[in-house]
Amino acid sequence: MSDKAHEQVVQRQFGEQASAYLSSAVHAQGVEFSLLQAAVQGHGAARVLDLGCGAGHVSFHVAPLVGEVVAYDLSEQMLEVVAAAAAQRGLANVRTERGAAERLPFADASFDFVFSRYSAHHWSDLGLALREVRRVLKPGGVAAFIDVASPGSPLLDTHLQTVEVLRDTSHVRDYSTAEWLRQVSEAGLHVDRHTRQRLRLEFGSWIERMRTPAVFRDAILALQNAQGEEVREYFEIAADGSFSTDVLVLWAGR
User: Fold this and answer.
1) Is 58 domain-assigned?
2) Cα separations (Å) of 1 from 4, 10, 95, 101, 169?
3) Domain containing 77 — which CATH number?
4) CB contact burial 229-248 (16+ within 10 A = b; e otherwise)
5) Domain tally, the chain
6) Beta strand extents in 176-254 (DSSP E only)
7) Reported pTM
8) Contacts (Cβ under 8 Å, ≥6 apart) of 222
9) pLDDT digit string (tens) for 130-146?
10) CB 67 within 8 A of CB 95
11) Domain of 11?
Protein backbone atom coordinates (compact mmCIF):
# COMPACT_ATOMS: atom_id res chain seq x y z
CA MET A 1 0.00 0.00 0.00
CA SER A 2 1.37 3.44 -0.92
CA ASP A 3 1.66 6.23 1.64
CA LYS A 4 -1.15 8.10 -0.10
CA ALA A 5 -3.43 5.07 0.00
CA HIS A 6 -2.68 4.58 3.70
CA GLU A 7 -3.41 8.24 4.40
CA GLN A 8 -6.83 7.79 2.78
CA VAL A 9 -7.52 4.82 5.07
CA VAL A 10 -6.55 6.90 8.11
CA GLN A 11 -8.77 9.80 7.07
CA ARG A 12 -11.69 7.48 6.41
CA GLN A 13 -11.28 5.66 9.72
CA PHE A 14 -11.00 8.75 11.90
CA GLY A 15 -13.11 11.29 10.06
CA GLU A 16 -16.47 9.92 11.12
CA GLN A 17 -15.30 9.15 14.65
CA ALA A 18 -13.65 12.49 15.43
CA SER A 19 -16.12 13.66 18.07
CA ALA A 20 -16.00 10.26 19.82
CA TYR A 21 -12.30 10.76 20.52
CA LEU A 22 -12.94 14.08 22.24
CA SER A 23 -15.08 12.36 24.88
CA SER A 24 -13.10 9.09 25.02
CA ALA A 25 -11.89 8.43 28.57
CA VAL A 26 -8.82 6.59 27.24
CA HIS A 27 -7.74 9.67 25.30
CA ALA A 28 -8.96 12.38 27.70
CA GLN A 29 -7.39 10.89 30.84
CA GLY A 30 -3.90 9.74 31.72
CA VAL A 31 -1.09 10.36 34.19
CA GLU A 32 1.15 11.38 31.29
CA PHE A 33 -0.64 14.72 30.94
CA SER A 34 0.90 15.92 34.21
CA LEU A 35 4.33 14.84 32.91
CA LEU A 36 3.88 16.89 29.74
CA GLN A 37 2.71 19.88 31.75
CA ALA A 38 5.73 19.58 34.03
CA ALA A 39 8.04 19.53 30.99
CA VAL A 40 6.73 22.86 29.68
CA GLN A 41 6.37 24.53 33.08
CA GLY A 42 8.41 27.71 33.13
CA HIS A 43 8.59 27.92 29.33
CA GLY A 44 5.85 30.46 28.83
CA ALA A 45 7.06 31.53 25.38
CA ALA A 46 7.57 27.99 24.07
CA ARG A 47 6.16 26.71 20.80
CA VAL A 48 4.76 23.17 20.96
CA LEU A 49 3.87 20.73 18.18
CA ASP A 50 1.11 18.26 19.09
CA LEU A 51 1.96 15.65 16.46
CA GLY A 52 -0.97 13.46 15.45
CA CYS A 53 -3.12 15.46 17.82
CA GLY A 54 -6.34 13.48 17.40
CA ALA A 55 -9.05 15.29 19.34
CA GLY A 56 -6.48 17.66 20.89
CA HIS A 57 -6.16 16.50 24.48
CA VAL A 58 -2.40 17.15 24.67
CA SER A 59 -2.92 20.60 23.16
CA PHE A 60 -5.59 21.49 25.70
CA HIS A 61 -3.44 20.41 28.67
CA VAL A 62 -0.27 22.31 27.72
CA ALA A 63 -1.70 25.38 25.95
CA PRO A 64 -2.29 27.43 29.15
CA LEU A 65 1.43 27.08 29.98
CA VAL A 66 3.08 27.99 26.65
CA GLY A 67 3.10 30.60 23.91
CA GLU A 68 1.66 28.55 21.04
CA VAL A 69 0.51 25.01 20.30
CA VAL A 70 0.19 23.72 16.75
CA ALA A 71 -2.29 20.83 16.68
CA TYR A 72 -1.27 18.75 13.67
CA ASP A 73 -3.18 15.80 12.25
CA LEU A 74 -3.99 14.03 9.00
CA SER A 75 -7.75 14.12 9.61
CA GLU A 76 -9.51 17.37 8.72
CA GLN A 77 -12.52 16.33 10.81
CA MET A 78 -10.32 15.82 13.86
CA LEU A 79 -8.84 19.28 13.39
CA GLU A 80 -12.33 20.78 13.19
CA VAL A 81 -13.14 19.15 16.54
CA VAL A 82 -9.90 20.52 18.02
CA ALA A 83 -10.52 24.05 16.75
CA ALA A 84 -14.08 24.11 18.10
CA ALA A 85 -13.08 22.67 21.49
CA ALA A 86 -10.13 25.07 21.81
CA ALA A 87 -12.40 28.03 21.11
CA GLN A 88 -14.94 26.77 23.63
CA ARG A 89 -12.19 26.51 26.26
CA GLY A 90 -10.80 29.95 25.48
CA LEU A 91 -7.47 28.62 24.23
CA ALA A 92 -6.67 31.23 21.61
CA ASN A 93 -3.04 30.06 21.29
CA VAL A 94 -4.00 26.69 19.78
CA ARG A 95 -3.97 26.59 15.99
CA THR A 96 -4.53 23.63 13.71
CA GLU A 97 -2.68 22.44 10.64
CA ARG A 98 -3.25 19.37 8.51
CA GLY A 99 -0.68 16.92 7.18
CA ALA A 100 1.21 13.66 7.61
CA ALA A 101 3.82 12.98 10.28
CA GLU A 102 6.34 12.02 7.60
CA ARG A 103 6.10 15.43 5.87
CA LEU A 104 5.99 18.27 8.38
CA PRO A 105 5.31 21.65 6.72
CA PHE A 106 7.38 23.57 9.25
CA ALA A 107 10.76 25.27 9.15
CA ASP A 108 13.86 23.69 10.63
CA ALA A 109 14.32 24.25 14.37
CA SER A 110 10.91 25.87 14.80
CA PHE A 111 9.58 24.08 17.93
CA ASP A 112 10.77 23.90 21.52
CA PHE A 113 8.72 20.76 22.20
CA VAL A 114 7.19 18.00 20.08
CA PHE A 115 4.64 15.78 21.85
CA SER A 116 2.90 12.79 20.30
CA ARG A 117 0.34 10.62 22.11
CA TYR A 118 -1.35 7.50 20.70
CA SER A 119 -0.54 8.43 17.12
CA ALA A 120 2.71 6.75 16.05
CA HIS A 121 1.13 3.34 15.48
CA HIS A 122 -0.75 4.89 12.53
CA TRP A 123 2.33 6.36 10.83
CA SER A 124 3.38 4.64 7.62
CA ASP A 125 7.09 5.29 8.27
CA LEU A 126 8.13 5.77 11.88
CA GLY A 127 11.79 6.42 11.04
CA LEU A 128 10.98 9.16 8.54
CA ALA A 129 8.56 10.81 10.97
CA LEU A 130 11.20 10.77 13.72
CA ARG A 131 13.73 12.39 11.40
CA GLU A 132 11.16 15.10 10.71
CA VAL A 133 10.70 15.57 14.45
CA ARG A 134 14.44 16.08 14.84
CA ARG A 135 14.46 18.56 11.96
CA VAL A 136 11.74 20.80 13.39
CA LEU A 137 13.03 20.67 16.98
CA LYS A 138 15.29 23.46 18.13
CA PRO A 139 18.73 22.47 19.46
CA GLY A 140 18.10 21.45 23.04
CA GLY A 141 14.43 20.83 22.25
CA VAL A 142 12.44 18.05 23.88
CA ALA A 143 10.26 15.36 22.31
CA ALA A 144 7.90 12.97 24.11
CA PHE A 145 6.27 9.94 22.52
CA ILE A 146 3.44 8.05 24.21
CA ASP A 147 2.02 5.00 22.48
CA VAL A 148 0.81 1.45 22.90
CA ALA A 149 3.91 -0.76 22.91
CA SER A 150 4.47 -4.29 21.73
CA PRO A 151 5.74 -6.66 24.44
CA GLY A 152 8.47 -7.73 21.99
CA SER A 153 7.83 -11.48 22.33
CA PRO A 154 6.81 -12.90 18.90
CA LEU A 155 3.81 -14.73 20.38
CA LEU A 156 2.49 -11.70 22.25
CA ASP A 157 3.36 -9.32 19.43
CA THR A 158 1.42 -11.34 16.85
CA HIS A 159 -1.68 -11.33 19.03
CA LEU A 160 -1.51 -7.59 19.70
CA GLN A 161 -0.97 -6.56 16.08
CA THR A 162 -3.78 -8.87 14.94
CA VAL A 163 -6.43 -7.53 17.30
CA GLU A 164 -5.32 -3.97 16.55
CA VAL A 165 -5.71 -4.27 12.78
CA LEU A 166 -9.00 -6.17 13.09
CA ARG A 167 -10.35 -3.35 15.21
CA ASP A 168 -8.89 -0.55 13.07
CA THR A 169 -7.65 -1.09 9.51
CA SER A 170 -5.52 2.09 9.66
CA HIS A 171 -3.28 0.43 12.25
CA VAL A 172 0.34 -0.01 11.10
CA ARG A 173 2.33 -1.29 14.09
CA ASP A 174 2.70 -1.09 17.85
CA TYR A 175 6.49 -0.96 18.22
CA SER A 176 8.46 -2.61 21.01
CA THR A 177 10.63 -0.55 23.34
CA ALA A 178 13.73 -1.90 21.57
CA GLU A 179 12.34 -0.82 18.18
CA TRP A 180 11.57 2.65 19.54
CA LEU A 181 15.04 3.07 21.03
CA ARG A 182 16.73 2.02 17.80
CA GLN A 183 14.64 4.22 15.54
CA VAL A 184 14.86 7.28 17.80
CA SER A 185 18.64 6.91 17.87
CA GLU A 186 18.88 6.39 14.11
CA ALA A 187 16.83 9.57 13.60
CA GLY A 188 19.52 11.57 15.39
CA LEU A 189 17.68 12.10 18.66
CA HIS A 190 19.06 11.03 22.03
CA VAL A 191 16.87 9.13 24.47
CA ASP A 192 16.70 10.74 27.90
CA ARG A 193 14.46 8.21 29.65
CA HIS A 194 11.54 5.88 29.10
CA THR A 195 8.94 4.21 31.30
CA ARG A 196 6.18 1.64 30.89
CA GLN A 197 2.55 2.04 31.89
CA ARG A 198 -0.41 -0.32 31.66
CA LEU A 199 -3.63 0.69 29.95
CA ARG A 200 -6.96 -1.05 30.52
CA LEU A 201 -9.23 -1.11 27.46
CA GLU A 202 -12.94 -1.74 27.97
CA PHE A 203 -13.93 -3.82 24.97
CA GLY A 204 -17.33 -2.29 24.20
CA SER A 205 -16.18 1.33 24.05
CA TRP A 206 -12.89 0.35 22.37
CA ILE A 207 -14.82 -1.25 19.52
CA GLU A 208 -17.55 1.37 19.35
CA ARG A 209 -15.07 4.23 19.12
CA MET A 210 -13.89 2.89 15.73
CA ARG A 211 -17.29 1.52 14.68
CA THR A 212 -15.57 -1.80 14.07
CA PRO A 213 -17.73 -4.04 11.83
CA ALA A 214 -19.40 -6.96 13.63
CA VAL A 215 -17.46 -9.53 11.63
CA PHE A 216 -14.15 -8.09 12.88
CA ARG A 217 -15.46 -7.64 16.43
CA ASP A 218 -16.46 -11.31 16.50
CA ALA A 219 -13.09 -12.31 15.06
CA ILE A 220 -11.29 -10.50 17.90
CA LEU A 221 -13.41 -12.26 20.51
CA ALA A 222 -12.89 -15.62 18.83
CA LEU A 223 -9.14 -15.06 18.68
CA GLN A 224 -8.99 -14.09 22.35
CA ASN A 225 -10.91 -17.21 23.34
CA ALA A 226 -8.64 -19.42 21.25
CA GLN A 227 -5.40 -18.12 22.72
CA GLY A 228 -3.28 -20.00 25.21
CA GLU A 229 -2.87 -19.09 28.85
CA GLU A 230 0.36 -17.10 28.29
CA VAL A 231 -1.40 -14.63 25.99
CA ARG A 232 -4.55 -14.44 28.10
CA GLU A 233 -2.57 -13.76 31.27
CA TYR A 234 -0.24 -11.16 29.78
CA PHE A 235 -3.05 -9.10 28.28
CA GLU A 236 -5.37 -9.79 31.22
CA ILE A 237 -8.16 -10.76 28.83
CA ALA A 238 -11.59 -10.74 30.49
CA ALA A 239 -14.69 -12.70 29.53
CA ASP A 240 -16.21 -9.64 27.81
CA GLY A 241 -13.07 -9.06 25.69
CA SER A 242 -11.65 -6.22 27.77
CA PHE A 243 -7.87 -6.37 28.10
CA SER A 244 -4.73 -4.53 29.21
CA THR A 245 -1.76 -3.48 27.13
CA ASP A 246 1.60 -1.79 27.60
CA VAL A 247 2.14 1.91 26.95
CA LEU A 248 5.60 3.38 26.38
CA VAL A 249 6.41 6.92 27.50
CA LEU A 250 9.69 7.94 25.89
CA TRP A 251 11.52 11.25 26.28
CA ALA A 252 14.14 12.31 23.75
CA GLY A 253 16.06 15.45 22.87
CA ARG A 254 17.94 17.04 20.06
Assistant:
1) yes
2) 8, 13, 31, 17, 12
3) 3.40.50.150
4) eebbebbebeeebbbebbbb
5) 1
6) 190-201, 243-253
7) 0.90
8) none
9) 999 999 999 999 999 99
10) no
11) 3-148+172-199+245-253
